[in-house]
Amino acid sequence: MRGCESTCVGLAPAHVRAIAPYLPGKPISELARELGLNEADIVKLASNENPLGPSPRALEAAQDALHDMALYPDGAGFALKAKLSAKLGVSADQIVLGNGSNDVLDMVARAFLMAGTSSVYSQHAFAVYPIATQTAGAQGIAVQAKHYGHDLAAMRMAIRDDTRVLWIANPNNPTGTFLPWHEIEAFLKEVPRRVLVVLDEAYGEYLPHAERCDTAAWLARFPNLLISRTFSKAYGLAGLRVGYGLGNSAVIDLLNRVRHPFNVNAPALAAAEAALDDDAFLARSYALNTSGMGQLLGGLARLGIETVPSKGNFLLARVGDATRINAELLKRGVIVRPVANYGLPEFLRVSVGLAGQNARFLDALKDCL
Length: 369
Ligand SMILES: *Cc1c(COP(=O)(O)O)cnc(C)c1O
Description:
This protein is of the alpha/beta class. The chain has two domains: 13-53 and 280-368, Aspartate Aminotransferase, domain 1, CATH 3.90.1150; 58-277, Type I PLP-dependent aspartate aminotransferase-like (Major domain) (Aspartate Aminotransferase, domain 2), CATH 3.40.640.10. Helix content is 41%, strand content 15%. The strands form three sheets. A seven-stranded mixed sheet has the order 2-8-7-6-5-3-4, with helices on both faces. It has a four-stranded antiparallel sheet with strand order 9-10-13-12, covered by helices on one side. Strands 1-11 form a two-stranded parallel sheet. α7 (128-135) links the parallel β3 and β4. α4 packs antiparallel against α11 (266-277), α6 runs parallel beside α7 and α12 (279-302) runs parallel beside α14 (355-368). The chain is globular, with a radius of gyration of 21 Å. The relative contact order is 0.17. The model has no long low-confidence stretch (mean pLDDT 96). The chain binds pyridoxal-5'-phosphate. Residues 48, 100-102, 126, 169, 173, 200, 202, 230, 232-233, 238, 243 line the site of pyridoxal-5'-phosphate (PLP). Pyridoxal-5'-phosphate binds next to α6.
């Protein structure tokens, strides 16, 4: 390793060596090893996963697909795209499939960014935007947040001649902040058409029905819009890695050029297709999140802990010394997410779990305050 550091590692581009790596939630198995605990005794509310697991229909479809694991998957994802196309009212050539929606975000960076260009995102926005930008050798422009969320007017002002991509997460992770869709629509009318606006809707399924919006219908009006969605959150398929992007067919064509062949595996394709048919599962996931969010908000308020209003399946709790509290929670077998790397050192991000998991977290927190 030493020798390599003075040669190949040192010669890797400076923009790659400067990347702050993505910090995932601590895996249950890792904490179990460290504490000598049973995995079953650990509660993980750290990665915004669906506490119900996957839809049973998705699970069955994935299991069936395993029989064909010797074969390459359909690299074009024909069947899943056909289903999405019918459901969303876009044509199949307006859809790109990703190995998780992170893959789609990375394709955007590879297709549109390079040294000498820039991308704009908000302070406290999803960590993948700066990482993808930096990987492509482009410059990231972080715009000061407003009430922890995106300040669209400031983001508009931050666009430079060399800006090629602008990222918006709505709702945003890790803050849970949400902008009314009419504000985003007005923003899209203002943004120069040479800038690709990525609208990341990873938590769209958790929005109350009155606050949802058929943003796919905007694609006809905004050729520089790229919407990303995922099966990782409400659909409960995070471990399989499948998401998608919707955009103008010419934009999608570019993304397909940089997409790795066979980027979505066969069980993931099959599970996603089946998941799209299971509306009842999605409704259960939504209802559980609504009640769990209420439980967490009530419990935190009783402990005198401030929260940031969230439209996702997680929330930010202002615990003060988050490093200490996080360490104490871990000792009690509770994994949540510290967000100091997002510029939020006083907060912990807590995913909404099952009622019993939420209660475990609240009890553990009370114990270590
Ligand atoms: C979780 C999340 C994603 C989804 O990532 P996948 O790669 O689809 O698992 C995308 N964007 C945001 C803001 C997220 O929080």
